[in-house]
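Continuing the batch. This is chain 6 of the set; chains 1 through 5 are on the previous pages. Same settings as before, nothing changed between runs. Recording input and output for traceability.
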Amino acid sequence: MTICWPDHLFLVGCGNMAGQMLARWLDCGLDPARVTVLRPSGRSVADGVAVVMTYPATLPAGTTILLGMKPYQIADVATALAPLCGADVRIVSILAGTPIADLRARFPAVRDMVRAMPNLPVGLGEGVTALFADDGTSVQAKADIGGLIEPLGLAEWIGDEALFNQVTALSGCGPAFLFRFIDALARAGEALGIPADQAARMALATVQGSANMAARASDSPGVLADRVASPGGMTREGMNVLDADDRLLTLMTDTLAAARDRGEAMARGA
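Output for chain 6:
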């Protein structure tokens, strides 16, 4: 994999998500000497990566900034960071509920901005990252930032920013929902009498193997499910419970809608 790394990468915050992204980039060959992390705690991030507790006096030419702090901190961050940003700086924001228009208002000198929403498996190179850029961002910047995101897994450009909270609910929040499903599958097995440790291992391996199978199949997961569920068999009886009154679909739709609504509320609050 050939990646056009930015001349310099400046991370504002390096929590769970930004930390996973950085770890993957370093694993893929990003020179740690090109990276600076602003972290109030001053805690080390990785060998060779500079960590600062306050903003530098200047940013190197060709810097790409990753905004990875908490969304509510954007006002304070912009007050300190915007004066350091010239036209050659690019911004990638992973702040939930913070639209491009808000970023442009806070960083008026920056032309190239991309909004991104990754999920946790990016640290393994198996994540999903939704991307959006408005017409003010150059084609070259989009290509470069898209190339930077590709080592993290699936990169999906979203044509309408109005869908960003929906996409975030699906892929950004999705790992947590899937973790809950795996836990529930294991606990259900335990409730039927399987020892807890065995149920946990079997549930996890079942989901992992099935996901890999679905990823490699030419048919949709819905078709695969029906193929496994032979008429009159055990699987079909269980599927009848999941499918009754579209209860599983309704549950997941309500779950994503709740996450989406929270994203919209966060945007209004910002």
